[in-house]
Amino acid sequence: MKVKIVTLGCKVNIYESEYILSCFKDKGYEITNAKADIYIVNTCSVTNTSDSKSRKIINRLIRENPGSVVVVVMGCMIEANHDFNLPGISILIGNKDKARVVELVEEYLSNKKQIVKVYKDFDKEFEDMFITNMASHTRAFVKIQDGCENFCSYCIIPYTRGRQRSKKEALVLDEITNLVENGYKEVVLTGIHTGHYGSDLKTSFPELLKKIVLIPNLKRLRISSIEITELNEEFLKVFQTNPIIVSHLHVPLQSGSDIVLQAMNRKYLTDYFLKKVETLRQIRPDISITTDIIVGFPGETEELFKETLEFVKKIKFTKVHVFPYSRRKGTKADLMENQVPENIKKERVKILIDLSNQLEQEYLDSYLGKTVEVLIEESQDFSTGHTGNYLKVIIDKHLASNNFYKVKILEREGLTLKGQLEDNEGN
How many domains does the chain have? Predict the structure, then answer.
């Protein structure tokens, strides 16, 4: 039987979907991107738009595949909408039991009765998953943590992902070691609140990093996202002394206004954020710092939005991922007064994206004429890859994928750099 999975949302979902596909493959199922017998949708619910997109995909999939044998819907959208159900859905689960999807599908195939498993207490333990390969990926993701207890006033994720819980250190190290032995040279650590790893295991994220960097033949270690409050002295010391950890950190800001940050229930103010960034740049002058910002949060006036613009200019982020504030039922921000009209949100999104593009181009231009190391990810008539600080580079030559090459940057085209091979030594 053929299996197809549709994955929405974050890198954690991507990792979980890869694990699920590997389980099906191990049981003899065929994985496909075309028509299938078994369809799985791993949903996202980070915004109302994410919910809507998930619903549309599920509806279309059921409508266009009336002959499918099994339709599985799982993930955050189900945790946020326990009453969601549609004719044609075979299995409904939240964020617990994802590791059991093959077992649940085979149970459904044996009795043809709909399975619904949504729990009130779904977050007592970390649900272990272990992958040895990631199809179509040069870099491998490893999920080390789940859940979040920050309770930002705009965010539904603590309710859909539950409490903080961590993967056991030995399993993390074994998984990464296996991936490296299988040829992966870059590993991305991911989680819902990655930097909070270990608080439930009487350890810490920096302690884990100290052990990961010792794994033989691991060339690059990337952190999917980390909060500014987790860039403590212990982390900074590990970051300073281990160049295997790449010079790119994604650090969510969410707003450049202290008034808005407090209303969001973020755990820092702009001065704290700025000083941490200055410390990072003292350690790694070439570091790329990317971020997330929400515009149009309730009470964000034009003046407060301008504070965000000025702060973004001061920090000089490499890239800003911009999101219009989306109301989420069940969050504190949904009940706040002074909701910002959609047309104003749209205008602010455009302004901030334009600024982000300008800053990104300036950062890219600083690499013109420099030599960088690129890990090749795709190669046909030309090759594409990324540097450690996540600059996309194109080389007009066929090169071996999953190999490193030294490349001299010649020009920038849009938000991509173009370069020429400086030597013939891949590794």
Answer: 3
